[in-house]
Amino acid sequence: MAPPAARVVQVAVQSSSRLFRDTLSSSLSLRPDVTVVGTVAEPDRMPALCELRRPDAVIFDAGLRLQETCRPVHRLMQRFPELNVVVTYRHAAEEELAAACRAGVSSLVPESHGLEAILAVLRRKRGRHAARSKPGEMTDRELEILVLAGSGHSVPEMADLLGISPLTVENVKRRIYAKLDVNSGAHAVSRAASLGILDQRPTPVVRHREPPNEDFPVLTVVSGQPCPALDQAMRILVANKMPFVHVRDGRNVAQTHWARWHRGPIVAALVDPEAADWAIVEELAIPAILVHSKPLDSSELADALANGATSLVLADAIEDRFLSLLRMAGQGYLVVDSLPMRPLIGAVRARWDQRAPGAGDLPELTARESDILRFGAQGHSIRQTARLLGIAPKTVENIQTRLFRKLGVRNRAGAVAVANAFGLLPTTAPTPSSRPPWPQIPGQDGRAPRHGT
Fold it and tell me: What's the rounded Cα separation, in Å, for the pair 286 and 280?
């Protein structure tokens, strides 16, 4: 008889140090019998995380503040008496250790004992199994919706990915809002990020096509502006008996029968495309051959690569190079002429050389962009943000567009998720009472603004 599988211990981590918090979480997650279900910076946020994720054990990083940690631990144990609470500390007096035990701490681990000591006390209480799916706890489906919303997916996209109806997605979102006590998608993502829930990235049950089978031919999706180059590309495909489809409207191509059932690689061939034509590449997540009638400058080349082009060819050279590019693009190669790439490579090299040591790849946000990101994370609308900052709503929209471009996202929920991953959000969200006294806007008090003196 095979031995019973070891039960996985679900752990929540608290530390005011982001480096320590992330390092400990990553180290614990490498163990097959430990799962980190969330992280928080402040001890007072742990009850909310425990309510949503119901961990088996909680780790508090007290450092030199063991006495201060006893108070939130005591409040936590009053709500969750069966919880296994582990506190790590750097130094403590005898009376502090006694106070921690009275507060309900299950195990005290000195930092000098390292990770193995923490694992030992976590595994010691394997006999207890916390009840799952209690009222108020976040379900797996709600976590999937939350993660997809944080990635910038719309309701129809989430419904298609998860194989459920848009109405079901809306109902799940309402339950998420109620559990997190928020009233918008961006605010929900911000609160989940502050509790470390989004860091876990539970894998949604997503319906994708099967991985391409190289034994099947490449299917070419042809789109773009009507011109001789477009006709020539299709003539080449017909002459070589290569399967292709000509798409005039790039919307909802993922729902077509050929996108769902083709078992080989799919490559887009875009001839002098407009912005709408690139939707094919994004929706199907496929490589693209860009056929361009005019030479591209460095900015146009960079835009093409960012939009998903993996091969570029001038329309004049399509007769000689199109088929070879199609085969290489189907195999995942990047094929670009060296001449137009040289300025782009030079710009990247110059940026790399000028980067300050230790600066990393964090996007640089202006003070105003940071303000708009912070208020957006709190769930404020564009008009509310404009009133708080004393600027026009149109100005907020323009700055927000720049912010989205810097973070590489399409909406506020995606911006909050990315900003949290980069550590650009404050560890604790400021309350309305703690906001700075922004200047009063004329007419904000309900009276019409007066002109003149």
Answer: 8
Q: Which range marks the domain in which residue 418 is found?
A: 367-434
Going through 1-135 in order, the beta strands assigned E by DSSP cover 9-14, 34-40, 57-63, 84-89, 107-110
Claim to verify: residue 303 and residue 383 sit in the same structural domain = no
Mean pLDDT of 23-28: 87
Task: Confirm if 54 and 132 have CB atoms less than 8 A apart.
Answer: yes
Residues 51/191, Cβ–Cβ less than 8 Å: no
DSSP annotation of 335: B
Whichever domain contains 158, its CATH number is 1.10.10.10
Beta sheet of 244-246, edge-to-edge order: 244-246, 219-224, 266-271, 288-292, 309-314
CB 250 within 8 A of CB 276: yes
Q: Please tell me whether residues 403 and 318 are part of one structural domain.
A: no
Mean pLDDT of 112-132: 66
pLDDT score recorded for residue 358 = 42
Highest mean pLDDT among 21-25, 113-117, 429-433, 449-453: 21-25
Q: Which two tokens stand for residue 45?
A: 């946020």
- Kindly state whether residue 360 falls inside one of the protein's structural domains: no
| Bridge partner residues of 246 (DSSP) | 222
Asked which of 98, 123, 148 is the last residue of a domain, the reply is 123
Alpha helix (H) residue ranges in 309-356: 318-330, 338-354
Q: And the tokens for 437?
A: 């006294």
Q: What are the distances in angstroms from CA 276 to CA 151, 232, 301, 337?
A: 21, 22, 18, 25
CA 287/CA 2 separation, integer angstroms: 46
CA 191 to the chain's CA centroid: 14
pLDDT in tens, 45-97: 999 989 888 898 999 999 888 888 888 998 898 888 888 899 998 877 777 87
Residues 227, 176: one domain? no
Domain count, the chain: 4
Tokens of 374: 């912070």
H or E stretch covering 246? strand 244-246
* 58 lies in the same domain as 18: yes
Q: Rounding to the nearest 10 degrees, give the CA dihedral for residues 140, 144, 149, 151.
A: 140
Contacting residues for 424 by C-beta, under 8 A, at least 6 apart:
362, 363, 365, 370, 373
**For 134-175, what is each residue's pLDDT tens digit?**
556 777 788 778 877 776 678 887 887 777 888 888 888 888
